[in-house]
């Protein structure tokens, strides 16, 4: 069969062969249509309604461009990139987010379960999933194991470990296909232009060298301005989009909703809740099959249903999230002073004092912390034009130098709901 094309707003025509098309059509991959890429960011930026599906096919497309570039670079070093190596890279890029939960990373914060990367592995390994069966049918069992090894970076001491290390770096690192797509995509859909960079020139900047029998990706120093543009794009997107105060506010509201539902379930009070969601909330074992039932629409249905609950706290929180109603009082002083004021008010009305504001439903604290560049876990290597040696980015960049890299931008906002305070304590809040 011939190729299959999807028109994408970021990359134009994205072409898929028949095997990849069959993977796209698996229910586990189609589920990504129902998960927003940026959680509840659409409550801040109304056009940020793009999905994990569009991001995943975009990552696949970027990976194809990267592999095309590195095939030439690796062959110059005497390494032949086989057809199967390329297929591994393409499938790994395509499926890198298949384990994502609803509301993006917020799902992991709410339920304290394993990471979406771990769920990705579980879905691919589960013999009952369509995606598992399809990969074996199309590529074979050996390919499936190699895919797992690459995505989990457990390929050491294998014959192809050098090639695998390059693929794994392109799947997950500070300069991977994932990040290269989502910065451009999220920038476009939020209209925050600081997230844009020259992807074609960035790909062109990559080189590869061998150090102590291991292959390492680097960027030529002559392309430093392009790399700086890319790193700064990530910084500004975190500062202005990913950690936006209103988004954080709504995500914490989500956490409070499920905290309240858990208390209701534990108390044996009757409330509408699907069995799979009950298991999630009560931290019981959940099967891959049940996990795959969950998506944004699944949770939104529950939240909308809970607006008719008999629990006033839950009803208020659900309406806050659905209608983007932020808590009405923003506090300008610190938590200790706030707690002291509230406890004086409670004591005046013979109510028990508050020990920790973070345990209270009427309290939301949003935090923002953004680093320019972190080299402690993985480096971005620069090949010096002076001596051909490799240096960390912070050693060669005038902008992203060591002094700036260790700094971070941080801020904190505290919000109080006077309505919730009155629901809980029966007192008008006076600060």
List key phrases describing it.
single chain, alpha+beta, 4-stranded mixed sheet, 431 residues, globular, Hypothetical protein af1432
Could you explain the architecture of this structure?
This protein is of the alpha+beta class and 431 residues long. It has a domain of 274 residues: Hypothetical protein af1432 (Orthogonal Bundle). Helices cover 52% and strands 12% of the residues. Strands 3-4-7-8 form a four-stranded mixed beta sheet. A three-stranded antiparallel beta sheet has the order 5-9-6. A hairpin with a 2-residue loop joins β3 and β4. The N and C termini lie far apart (70 Å). The mean pLDDT is 94.
* Tally of DSSP helical segments: 21
Helix-strand string: EEHHHHHHHHHHHEEHHHHHHEHEEEHHEH
| DSSP strand tally | 9
Q: What value does the Rg take, in angstroms?
A: 24 Å
CATH architecture of the domain at 4-243 and 373-406: Orthogonal Bundle
Largest sheet geometry: 4 strands, mixed
- Indicate the percent of residues in helices: 40-55%
Name the CATH superfamily classification of the domain at 4-243 and 373-406: Hypothetical protein af1432
Could you report the average pLDDT, rounded to the nearest whole number? Answer: 94
Domain HD/PDEase: 48-192
InterPro entries: dGTPase-like (IPR050135), HD/PDEase_dom (IPR003607), HD_domain (IPR006674)
GO molecular function: dGTPase activity
Pfam families: HD
């Amino acid at each position: 069969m011939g190729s299959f094309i999807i028109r994408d707003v970021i990359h134009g025509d994205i072409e898929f062969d028949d095997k990849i098309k069959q993977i796209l059509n698996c229910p586990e991959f189609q589920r990504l249509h129902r998960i927003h890429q940026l959680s509840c960011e659409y409550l801040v930026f109304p056009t940020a309604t793009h999905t994990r599906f569009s991001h995943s096919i975009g990552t696949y497309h970027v990976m194809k461009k990267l592999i095309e570039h590195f095939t030439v670079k690796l062959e110059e070093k005497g390494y032949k990139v086989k057809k199967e190596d390329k297929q591994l890279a393409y499938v790994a890029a395509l499926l890198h987010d298949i384990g994502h939960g609803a509301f993006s990373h917020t799902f992991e914060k709410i339920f304290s379960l394993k990471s979406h990367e771990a769920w990705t592995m579980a879905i691919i390994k589960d013999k009952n999933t369509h995606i598992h069966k399809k990969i074996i049918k199309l590529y074979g069992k050996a390919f499936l194991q190699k895919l797992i090894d690459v995505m989990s970076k457990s390929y050491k001491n294998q014959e192809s470990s050098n090639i695998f290390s390059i693929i794994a770096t392109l799947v997950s690192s500070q300069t991977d296909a994932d990040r290269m797509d989502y910065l451009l995509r999220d920038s476009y859909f939020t209209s925050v232009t600081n997230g844009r960079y020259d992807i074609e020139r960035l790909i062109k900047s990559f080189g590869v060298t061998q150090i102590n029998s291991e292959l390492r990706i680097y960027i030529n120093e002559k392309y430093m301005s392009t790399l700086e543009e890319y790193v700064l794009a990530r910084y500004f997107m975190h500062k202005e989009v990913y950690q936006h105060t209103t988004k954080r506010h709504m995500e914490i509201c989500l956490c409070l909703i499920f905290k309240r539902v858990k208390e209701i379930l534990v108390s044996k009070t009757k409330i509408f809740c699907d069995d799979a969601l009950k298991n999630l909330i009560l931290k019981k074992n959940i099967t891959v099959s049940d996990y795959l039932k969950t998506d944004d629409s699944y949770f939104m249905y529950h939240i909308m249903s809970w607006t008719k609950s008999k629990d006033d706290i839950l009803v208020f929180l659900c309406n806050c999230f659905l209608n983007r109603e932020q808590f009405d009082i923003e506090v300008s002083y610190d938590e200790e002073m706030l707690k002291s004021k509230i406890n004086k008010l409670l004591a005046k009305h013979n109510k028990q004092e508050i020990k920790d504001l973070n345990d209270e439903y009427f309290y939301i604290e949003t935090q923002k912390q953004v680093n320019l560049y972190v080299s402690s876990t993985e480096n971005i290597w620069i090949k010096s034009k002076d001596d051909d040696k490799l240096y960390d980015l912070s050693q060669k960049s005038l902008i992203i130098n060591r002094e700036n890299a260790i700094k971070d931008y941080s801020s904190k906002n505290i919000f109080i709901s006077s309505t919730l305070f009155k629901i809980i304590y029966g007192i008008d809040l006076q600060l």
